[in-house]
Specification:
Radius of gyration: 15 Å
Order of helices and strands: HEEEEEEEEE
CATH class: Mainly Beta
Strand content: over 45%
Distance between the termini: 43 Å
Number of helices: 1
CATH topology: Porin
CATH architecture: Beta Barrel
Structural class: mainly beta
Helix content: 10-25%
Number of domains: 1
């Protein structure tokens, strides 16, 4: 089952990056660091694939697939929510509802966003069906195709 899930996440990641315009991000919560690659976060619907970037303390593998919908979009900020599906070695599977508040602090460069995330989720597997709330802060940069 693990190789199949890894293949699905990698296939989706390649599919996302096959376009010339992608977003890249780094997100930090209390223990975990995620690296993300996604589609255009300025569109009404967008997606992202995240991988855990573990270290010597937290060396678990994990991958998440996130689909989002922008509900509020202005020149200074966006508010979005969506669905998260994930796989982690320590909890097998998880499903959640991530909400994002992204702030574009430099109006001359709206490709840069500071992200505040709150994600209630349920983790299944080794630890049972536990309910959790994850808060993250991150930085996302959108690589636009030069015209």
């Amino acid at each position: 089952m693990k190789p199949y899930l890894i293949f699905c996440f990698l296939f989706f990641g390649v599919l996302l990056s096959s376009k010339a315009q992608v977003s890249v991000g780094v997100y930090k919560s209390s223990v975990f660091t995620h690296l993300g690659v996604g589609t255009d976060p300025e569109k009404k619907y967008f997606g992202e694939v995240r991988l855990f970037a573990g270290d010597w303390l937290n060396n678990y593998f994990g991958a998440e697939l996130i689909g989002q919908r922008n509900f509020t979009q202005t020149a200074w900020y966006n508010f979005s929510a969506g669905l998260l599906l994930g796989y982690h070695e320590f909890s097998d599977a998880s499903i959640g509802v991530p909400t994002f508040f992204s702030v574009k602090p430099i109006q001359a460069n709206t490709n840069l966003s500071l992200i505040l995330e709150a994600t209630p989720f349920v983790a299944f597997g080794n630890i049972g069906g536990s309910f959790n709330l994850r808060g993250s802060i991150g930085v996302r940069y959108f690589l636009r195709k030069q015209e």
